[in-house]
Design a protein that fits this description.
The structure holds two protein chains of two kinds. Chain A is mainly alpha-helical. In chain A, helix 3 (71-78) packs across helix 5 and helix 6 (137-165) packs antiparallel against helix 7. Chain A has helices at 10-32, 37-54, 71-78, 82-97, 105-124, 137-165, 172-207; strands at 58-61, 64-67. Chain A has one domain: Arp2/3 complex 21 kDa subunit ARPC3 (Orthogonal Bundle). Helices cover 69% and strands 3% of the residues of chain B. Chain B is flat, with a radius of gyration of 24 Å. Chain B has two domains: 6-140 and 242-262, no CATH class; 145-219, no CATH class. In chain B, strand 1 (91-95) and strand 2 (98-101) form a beta hairpin. Chain B has ten helices and two strands. Chain B has a two-stranded antiparallel ribbon. By secondary structure, chain B is mainly α. Classes of the chains: A mainly alpha, B mainly alpha. At the A-B interface, helix 1, helix 2, strand 1, helix 4 and helix 7 of A face helix 2, helix 4, helix 6, helix 8 and helix 9 of B.
Chain lengths: 214, 264
């Protein structure tokens, strides 16, 4: 779910960089407000590398398999570090394996990073909106919502960008049909991502709860 | 996603290798964005020619490009393969139910041309500049400290964590994971749970390692505001670097102007 180089016009790429610049500035400002931001850098960095590696885990759905994006999970676990983490992960992917792109780095980061920040706020709201629920249902449910919506929103942005920027000659009816079909195809993927996020967060809650404090 | 296991830098004695990293980074980025503005099919050969010329100057072997292009190339092919057959009204040829359309073909050529050119520049940048030098260049261009430190540390531990995951997956496989009968189009909830625990374990191990890394970094003075050394006169870009940067930026401006003039 990365937009490669060559697909989007330069204006959209530039707008992507502008949005990413703004989101990065906001995230760094929130990070710098913490009592000791440098103490959290090694943790965020190694988790960034671990997330990057973990996204290569394939979920078997015979006869094929799907791989996870994990942007919602990143938001849930890294908080405001999620946006820089996604930006760095995409930068590695673009440079090291040519997946994604350099001109589209801003667009891709905004597409995955903003839903990740949203996932963080959804997960944090478990203590206010989810007060009526008991543990661990509350944590599991809000992690599921974070994971599902993180991928779901990113997929919608991806589809809209692809459909609206590929040929002008494509008629409006075909565009609408394509968006609808592709959106429906992403629903099961978002649910799998949500379930995976909930299972992982519940496991971490049992084994290393301090990891969820970010 | 595959995780590469080594630096993609290739040492050669070329002008692109000697090009100041800061100027190289900025100039190639400007040219990439100029490529992204191209909409006129007549400019595709110019764009590809510029990328090929810079690649030749870099002295990198063709196999390096071929090897690196194969994976993203398949991805872009999957995206554009239907365009020449489905988009547009001008029919160029028809074979049974297959119809080749001019507008779709032009759109495909534009996307593939831009993709190949931009990616080639990216590989020139990475193939001729060690990753750490590239990061230093970005730092000197104003990359925030937190981002620079995070990139450096993530890169340092990326391959170690990838090796850790490979070992864990091998251990799971040896204990019978994935050997059972699987039903089509069904997600096995037990397998999903086990994979979630695998990923969770990977995150926990990384977290624990990060605590040890942080303590070691503190002992070496991290976070005490050590001043970075000022660049010495030897680090200043050479006239050759300025010349290359000027040439590349001029080519980028030329492409953008040509695109503006040719646009109907």
């Amino acid at each position: 779910m990365h937009i490669p180089d060559g697909i989007l016009p330069a204006q959209v790429c530039a707008a992507g960089y502008a949005i990413t610049g703004l989101a990065t500035w906001y995230s760094l400002r929130q990070i710098n407000r913490r009592p000791d931001p440098t103490a959290e850098i090694p943790k965020a960095s190694l988790l960034t590398a671990a997330f990057f590696v973990a996204s290569s885990i394939y979920i078997p759905v015979p006869p094929a398999s799907v791989h996870l994006i994990l942007n919602g999970l990143l938001g849930v676990m890294l908080g405001y570090f999620a946006f820089p983490a996604i930006l760095i992960g995409l930068f590695f992917q673009a440079l090291v394996i040519g997946h994604g792109g350099i001109t589209t780095l801003g667009v891709n980061a905004a597409m995955m990073g903003i839903p990740a920040m949203l996932a963080y706020h959804i997960f944090q709201s478990r203590n206010t909106l989810g007060k009526v629920l008991t543990e661990p249902t509350r944590t599991g449910l809000f992690a599921f919502l974070g994971g599902t919506l993180g991928l779901g929103i990113a997929a919608l942005i991806f589809l809209a960008l692809i459909i609206f920027n590929i040929p002008a000659e494509l008629d409006a009816g075909a565009e609408r049909a394509a968006i609808l079909a592709l959106s429906i195809a992403h629903v099961p993927l978002a649910l799998i991502e949500g379930l995976f996020t909930a299972m992982l967060v519940l496991f971490v809650r049992r084994v290393k709860p301090e990891l969820l404090e970010g | 996603m595959g995780v590469a296991s080594h630096d993609t830098y290739l040492h050669r004695e070329s002008v692109i290798h000697r090009w100041s990293p800061r100027l190289k980074l900025v100039s190639l980025l400007v040219l990439m964005f100029a490529f992204a503005t191209v909409r006129q099919p007549i400019l595709i050969p110019w764009m590809l020619g510029l990328a090929a010329g810079l690649y030749l100057l870099s002295g990198l072997p063709l196999a390096f490009l071929g090897q690196r292009l194969s994976y993203p190339g398949l991805f872009i092919l999957a995206l554009v393969v239907l365009l020449p057959l489905t988009v547009g009204d001008t029919v160029l040829g028809q074979w049974g139910w297959l119809t080749l359309r001019q507008e779709g073909l032009e759109a495909t050529l534009l996307i593939v041309g831009r993709f190949l050119s931009i990616l080639t520049l990216g590989f020139i940048l990475l193939g001729t500049t060690p990753f750490l030098t590239l990061l230093q260049a970005m730092r000197s261009l104003g990359l925030p400290t937190i981002l620079a430190d995070m990139t450096l540390l993530s890169y340092r531990y990326l391959f170690e964590i990838a090796a850790m995951l490979a070992t864990m997956q091998q251990a799971m496989g040896l204990r019978g994971f994935g050997q059972g009968r699987q039903r089509w189009l069904r997600v096995n909830s037990q397998a999903l749970q086990q994979l979630a625990m695998l990923a969770g374990n990977l995150l926990i191990r990384s977290y624990e390692q990060s605590e040890r890394v942080y303590k070691a970094m503190r002992l070496r003075g991290y976070g005490y505001g050590v001043k970075r050394p000022k660049p010495s006169p030897a680090d200043q870009p050479s006239p050759l670097s300025w010349g290359l940067a000027g040439g590349v930026v001029a080519a980028a401006v030329g492409l953008v102007v040509a695109e503006g003039l040719l646009r109907p």
